[in-house]
Amino acid sequence: MDPWLIWLIIAAVLAGAEIFTLTAALGMLSVAALVTAGSAAIGLSPPFQFLVFALVSTVTVVFVRPIALRHVLQPQTERFGIDALVGRGAYVISEVTGLDGRVRIDGEEWTARAYDETLVIPAGKTVDVIEINGATAIVYPRD
After folding, report:
1. Would you kindly state where each structural domain of the chain is located, as residue ranges?
2. What are 83-141's pLDDT values in tens digits?
3. 51-55: which pairs have CB atoms within 8 A and are 24 or more residues apart?
4. Out of 1.20.1060.10, 1.10.630.10, 3.20.20.150, 2.40.50.140, which CATH number does the structure's domain 81-141 have?
């Protein structure tokens, strides 16, 4: 079997293994094997093929992988769902106490509780959503 074909098979196996691990390291080694397959196809001897594989592997794993991981592991910048409601203002529909109440957040009606159990917030006031606990908004008055 030709050496370039062996390197091509190694590249395919490493690429397949990368799909299951998602570490980016095996993907980089797969690229190195692919480059080595090209060098074997132009007729480099086996010792030089291993040298090409070692150099390309080292460069990709040491320099390219950290950059790739930095782009993949970025924190989520946008808040969605109930997380997006925290910090928003709400309008009190019915009196909010430490036990119950109703508020309107962005046009939706929510059950609500005051942040402080002794606090009573009358209807018509504006409050801030401190937390969402299940389907209940924990609120605090703006005044």
Report:
1. 3-72, 81-141
2. 888 989 999 999 999 899 999 998 899 999 999 888 999 999 999 999 999 889 999 99
3. 53/7
4. 2.40.50.140
pLDDT per residue over 40-72, tens digit each? 999 999 999 999 999 999 998 888 888 887 877
- Name the maximum alpha-carbon separation found in the chain: 85
- Assigned token pair, 115: 């942040």
Q: Which long-range contacts (CB under 8 A, 24 or more apart) does 58-63 make?
A: 60/28, 60/29, 60/31, 60/32, 61/25, 61/28, 61/29
Q: In whole angstroms, what is the distance from residue 72 CA to residue 58 CA?
A: 21
* Cα Rg of the chain, angstroms: 30
pLDDT value of position 81: 82
Token pair recorded at residue 140? 């605090």
